[in-house]
Each structure stands twice: as C-alpha cells, then as structure tokens.
Amino acid sequence: MRQAGYIGLDVGTSGCKASVLDGEGRVLATASREYGFEYPAGGMVELNPSTVWNCVKDTLREIASSGHELRMLSVSSIGEAMVMLDREDRVLHNGITYLDERGPESVDTIRERIGGDRMHRITGLPPRLFYSLNRFLWLQENRPEIVEQTDKFFLFGDYITYMLTGERLIDPGSASKTWMLDRTRLDWSEEIGSAFGVPLGRFSAVVPTGTRAGTVRPQVAQETGLPETLQVVVGCHDQVAATLGSGCVRRGEMAAGEGSTESLNLVAGREDITDRFYDLDICLEPYVIPDTYMIPVGQHSHGTSIRWFVKQFGADFGPAPAETDGAARSIYEIANDNCAADSEEVYFLPHLTRSHLMDPANRSLGLFTGLKVSTGRAVMYRALLEGICFESKLCFDRLLETGFPIDRIVATGGCSKSALLMQMKADILGRPVGILEDANAGISALAMICAVSEGAYGTYGEAAGVFARIRKEYAPQRDYSEKYRRYVKVYEAAKALYR
C-alpha cells in the first residue's frame, strides 16, 4: 500500500472526476469519465442520472485500482437539477438542468403566491427559472404521475451520496439551489412547501458539510473495488467547493471560478446581509463555515466563448499544435500567441448561451461590434477575451455596490492557466489576481472536508493554509477604464435592441 488519501469526487454537467489526495494536498491519482446532456425536445436540456451514476462507478473503479489506501470520500456536484426515484430506487425522470427553458410561467406563479421579495428573504435567492422549485411545479402541472410516483427527491450530490451509502443527506449550500431552503434556519421552509404542495419529507435531511454519511454499501464496494471501510462524508455544491479550495475562508475573500462558466464567489458574514443586498437582486447561499455565506455572481459563457471561437477559427491561427520542449502545445496556447496587442474599436458581448447571472431575463445576445473590412481574427480574439473580462467587471461592480469588502481574489479552474487572460482580468478589475498551484480547487476542497471531518485539521482555515497554495499573483498593469465605459454602453444598447 502507498500513502493513504482522501477521495474528492466532482460531478459536473459534462463529466465526473475523482482524485486521491494525501493529507497535505498532493494529488496521488486521478480518474474521470465524460457524459453529456440529453435534448428530448426543443428548449429541453436534461441530464440522465443513470448515466451519471454509471460513470461515477467507472471513475471510482479506476481510483480503487490505483493501489492507494483510501479512508474517506466526499462529493461535490451541480445544483438545481433534481433526481426522482420510486420506492425501488428506479429513476423516474432525467434531471432538468439550468439551461432548460420550459415553464417560465412558474416564476410568475411563485411571485403571485408568495412574492419575489419574500422568496428572496427566505431563501437568499431572487426569482430565477432554473431553481428546482420551478421544475417541480412544471412536473406537477405537466407530468403529475411522475410526482405521485416519486418516493425520494434529490439533487445530484445527495443522489450520489445515497447511491454510495444508502443515506439521504444534503448540505445547506446544495439544498439552497432548490429555492426551498430557509437560509437562516438551514432547513426546508415549511412556508414554501405548504404554499406549493411540495412533499418536503421526501427530500434529503439538511446537515452540515462534513457530516459522516456512513461507509459504502457492500454492493458498491464489490462493483468498484472500493474498501467497505471507506467513509463517505457530506460534501457541498460545486461553487462552494471551488471557493473553499481556493483558500477563501474569511469574509472579503473571493474565488473566481474560471471554467466554461465564471462564478465570482465572495465570502460574506451574516452581518453583511442588508436590505441593499435584496435591492440589488443578488444571490447568496450558505457556506461551509458557520454564520457565513457565499455570494455568487458571474456569467454563463466564459470559457465557452473561448472554446467556441477557437473551434470555429482556431485552424486559421496556424498549424496543428506543435511540440515545445517535448510537450504538445494546445490550440488555446497558439491562439494566445497570436492574440493582437490591441482590439481597436471592436467589442464582444459573450452572451452565447445566456447573459450574466444578474440579468433576470437571462437572454442570449452574443455579438461582435465595430468590425471593419480590415479586422482580422487576432483583433477579434483579443476583443473576445476583453469581453469576458468586462463581464467579470460588471459582476464585480455589482458586488461593490452592496458595500461588501473585497480584499483578495484567487482564480481557479481551467481558464486560470492562461497568463494572458489572468493579466487582462487583473487589469480590468483593477485588483491583483492570485492563481493556485493546483487549478482543481474543487477537488482539493473535498479532500479538505474529509481531513477536517477526520480531525487531521481543526478548522478549514488551518487546512486551507496547506491545501490552497498560491503559485503566482498578477498585479494590474494597464488602465482599461475608458474601454470598459464604452463596453457598458454597447451592452446597454444591445439589451435595448433585443427588447
């Protein structure tokens, strides 16, 4: 046997990934599997729970074969999408994801019955279509037989925990994404449940992150090769994990999750939540540290915009990825090398899937503007990178309007590996941006949760000092204030045009 470790299992929209880490945050083994959305009809975007569970088992089977002693496992996952099982634990319906467009009228129903402001104050979340309550109401109206047959309601995180252990437990951060959690009591809201006929007793019990759920089921151990002694502890929502894994444990510290989407996650204290917070239509969810919240703002089409541009025009940047010092260079590195020094008067709105999370209409209105016959792909690429950073600035400024302190920014995720993008982000935000030695902060956070639950560290702050090591910090070097001012004008004009 090699050095003992903790398993962090992240369940996302496009795949799952697990790593084994030791008590000092070193990665010992990693495995992953890919899956994707299902599109049963126009506007419908679903995730198949059975497919996800089979991929999780395949991933854990590979982890188990790595030869490391395995003590504990914790799970992070996407929020909102529900998993519904009958009494024999058969899946009754795919999870309806945040990209699904069905049932916008349910938001109006909720406003009429309780009121948007009241829902915001109970749950911490302003009215949005993608929360689980809206999906429940759509199913109640259009597929009542599914609701009647459902014996257990889950989100994907507690569904995987249940399949591993047989225990039905969910952390407060994940539970808040249903739009049915009382954020002050950290339990299901009876007021909301009664108003909409939701059988809250069929949802998992809300418990603190780090609670021991138990050991893996014997059948799961047999199928995967995991030891039957492996302890499973309750994890958290993926954005909470990204924030914790970035070492953000004190109020005023912000994690920038730089993936396909971007989420700027600020840690705030209970005392920070004022009426100004509700006036600005901002979300919050319970954090892993008592009496603190994570305030997320962000954009849907962050890395997605880069991936789209490189997929469509990347071949024009040069030949296929070449070898540099024995390592293959990615097409993204080649695109960065060919990026123009100035974007001239070209602007890009990166709303290819949805606009930023603070736009209630959440409409798609991606566009380039200011193009000339002489405009080349290098200029367009720079405008694209600036556009996604300007969106970050829009969200960042909204947080500043609340009066919350923002003392530190740590970036994580795949896009944080781009020096060009991180320097641009520091310039446009006007703040230093740190990046981690390990960009997979979410996985590190799950190992931290295991380590604190086991007692290897007394607090998350103590664990963060070991697990979340900063590799480099980018300081602002260029003034973008005038170009940002113009970008805001373009953004406002585009919104008016699309209306």
Give a description of the structure.
- This protein is an alpha+beta fold and about 500 residues long.
- Helix content is about 35%, strand content about 25%.
- It has 18 helices and 26 strands.
- The strands form eight sheets. It has a seven-stranded mixed beta sheet.
- The radius of gyration is 22 Å and the shape is globular.
Give the key terms.
499 residues; alpha+beta; 7-stranded mixed beta sheet; 6-stranded mixed beta sheet; 37% helix
Mean pLDDT: 91
Shape category: globular
Strand content: 15-25%
| Whole-angstrom Rg | 22 Å
- Please provide the count of β strands: 26
Coarse structural class: alpha+beta
Low-pLDDT runs:
none
Please work out how many helical segments DSSP would assign: 18
Largest β sheet strand count, sense and barrel closure: 7 strands, mixed
Strand order of the largest sheet: 18-19-17-16-24-25-26
Give the proportion of residues in helices: 25-40%
Distance between the termini: 63 Å
